[in-house]
Design brief:
Layout (H helix, E strand, L loop, with lengths): L1 H35 L4 E7 L1 E5 L2 E10 L2 E5 L4 E6 L6 E2 L4 E5 L2 H29 L5 H26 L2 E3 L4 E3 L9 E2 L4 E6 L4 E8 L11 E6 L2 E16 L5 E8 L11 E7 L4 E7 L4 E3 L2 E8 L24 E13 L2 E6 L6 E5 L10 E3 L17
Parallel strand pairs: 1-23
Antiparallel strand pairs: 1-22, 2-17, 3-12, 3-16, 4-11, 5-7, 5-10, 6-9, 7-8, 9-11, 12-15, 13-14, 13-16, 14-15, 17-21, 18-19, 19-20, 20-21
Length: about 375
């Protein structure tokens, strides 16, 4: 019995010794941690800067030709000749496609001969009426026959003209949809014709922006297919608001001398609405959006050297001796442009704000500024597909 008591006491003593050793180790680690301070999270930062901003309204627009149509024939027939090349610029009235019309033209000549005979008879009977050789009734019949013959000529001329498809307006033809010798029915598409200069840009704006737009205002158009923006003016504002979306349609007219803009393209449109204003701006990546509001992390420090990485360790880094912490600050955001967002309330000029790395932060977290790789902060950047 005493043997078991001694063994149990030895085990308890061993456990106490091991526990003491572990406790000393943990205490040592805690003291080291406290001596070094809390871990620092690496973030990038930027100052809230006061910049001039041209207020604009932005939207996505679709391009439409001032004149555009898919040309077709009013009558059926066989394509006799095509008098244009695909992609060619044509003039108004220029002959584009000829359908086989030999029989129609022959019938037209026959009717013209009949009309000429009716004219001769009428002229001769006029002279005979003056000589009282015929009655007025006979001359009236001759006049009616002449008018009927001339009407038949005009009718047949119209039928024959339908076999010759001409450009209704000047523009550029597309790729032809028919070939010589092909039979086409009435209404079959032959080719598209589009006027490319000038060109329309149609877009929609919310009804609350109606007071800021008017005919004659300048607009700027940008597209991923061209690095050079296009300028134009608002030509018309739809007098009716869409009851489903509460948006109003706006049409702008643009010059397109180089034909870089084509109908059907989508473009980004910006409408200049007023004089320039001063806004506090930040990169859009600095703002954290939540269901309960937008916020930023403001960097707090006893030293102003933290701003934009102007620490003692060199450009893009903060000094190791600085104690930098962050404080979440709710803000009211305004309009955006390219990579920037305007801050209406919640910040002051010169405040240093975290621009990347916010997901790992909370109030009071210690940070280390590293600005060697900053998020984009361009006011007029145009996205390009690479």
């Amino acid at each position: 019995m005493k043997r078991w008591i001694y063994m149990a006491g030895a085990v308890v003593l061993l456990v106490l010794v091991i526990g003491g050793i572990k406790a000393c180790s943990v205490s040592k680690v805690i003291k080291q941690f406290q001596a070094k301070g809390a871990p620092k999270f690496t973030v990038s930062a930027a100052k809230a800067e006061l910049t001039q901003w041209q207020p604009t309204l932005s939207a996505v627009a679709s391009l439409h030709a001032v004149h555009g149509a898919d040309l077709s024939s009013e009558v059926a027939g066989i394509v006799d000749a095509i008098d244009f090349e695909s992609g060619q610029d044509v003039k108004a009235g220029q002959l584009l496609v000829r359908l086989r019309a030999a029989d129609d033209l022959a019938h037209l000549e026959s009717l013209k001969a009949t009309a000429a005979l009716a004219q001769t008879v009428y002229t001769r009977d006029q002279a005979q009426l003056e000589a009282q050789a015929i009655s007025q009734t006979a001359l009236d019949n001759d006049a009616a026959n002449l008018k009927a013959a001339q009407a038949q000529v005009q009718e047949q001329q119209a039928v024959s003209d339908k076999k010759f498809i001409r450009a209704p307006f000047a523009g550029r033809v597309g790729i032809r949809a028919v070939d010589p010798g092909q039979y086409v029915g009435a209404g079959t598409k032959l080719v598209t014709l589009q006027t490319l200069d000038p060109i329309y840009a149609d877009f929609y704006l919310p009804q609350q922006d109606l007071s800021q737009i008017a005919v004659g205002q300048s607009v700027t158009i940008s597209t991923s297919s061209s690095e050079t923006p296009f300028t134009g003016k608002i030509e018309a504002v739809n007098p009716q608001v869409d009851t489903n979306t509460r948006n109003v349609q706006v049409r702008a007219r643009l010059s397109n001398p180089e034909r870089k803009l084509l109908p059907g393209m989508y473009v980004n449109v910006s409408v200049t609405v007023s004089d320039t204003k001063d806004y506090l701006t930040l990169p859009q990546t600095a703002v954290v959006y939540n269901p309960y509001g937008a916020s930023v992390y403001v960097i707090r420090s006893g030293s102003t050297a933290a701003a934009n990485g102007q620490g003692t360790k060199g450009e893009g880094q903060s000094s190791a001796s600085e104690s930098l912490t962050v404080q979440q600050q709710f803000v009211e955001v305004g309009p955006t442009r390219a990579d920037q967002v305007a801050i209406l309330k919640g910040l002051h000029q010169g405040d240093s704000v975290v621009t990347s790395g916010q997901l790992k932060l909370k109030n009071g977290a210690a940070v280390l500024i590293e600005n060697s790789a900053q998020p984009p902060n361009e006011p007029t950047r145009i996205p390009v597909n690479e």
